[in-house]
Amino acid sequence: MHRSLQRLDSIHQKLMNTIAALDDATLSRTPADNHWSVAQIVHHLSLVENAVIGELERGLARPPQRISFLRRLIPTSIVSIRLVRVKAPRGMNPLEPPGREEIIANYDAARNRLKALYETHGPARLKQVIFKHPFLGDITGLATISFVGYHELRHLKQIRETLKKL
Length: 166
Known about the structure:
By secondary structure, this protein is mainly alpha-helical. It has helices spanning 3-20, 24-28, 38-61, 69-72, 100-126, 141-165, and strands at 130-133, 137-140. The longest helix has 27 residues, at 100-126.
């Protein structure tokens, strides 16, 4: 299994283990105004991952493209750093998350779709897809897979912070 998929699985498992033991009240409680509940965080992750999958599928339907050498050097790991609070794009705000089982099922389904997309097309083809990230700019499809893992890690940290505040 490719390193990117191993990281995705590892982070995803840690997140799922963290939320598995939470009761519904804890899952849906917000620590303060303008802060997300754990349920909203997981719903946001699902929304983002589904949007990423859609963009990658559209990119894969187009002829191969290349981005500049310098653009390929952008470290997607910076996404996991929580020193700066970043406002989610409008369509990625988890306004009203569904119930616990549906949130988890939606998120697991999105992850399975992303992994299937990776396994179907492989890293070589994904390097030929350009994804327009709202903060990182143009990155390859392969870097986008890496971004998803680091984005999940960022929000795993947020979940842990949220649980400490509750």
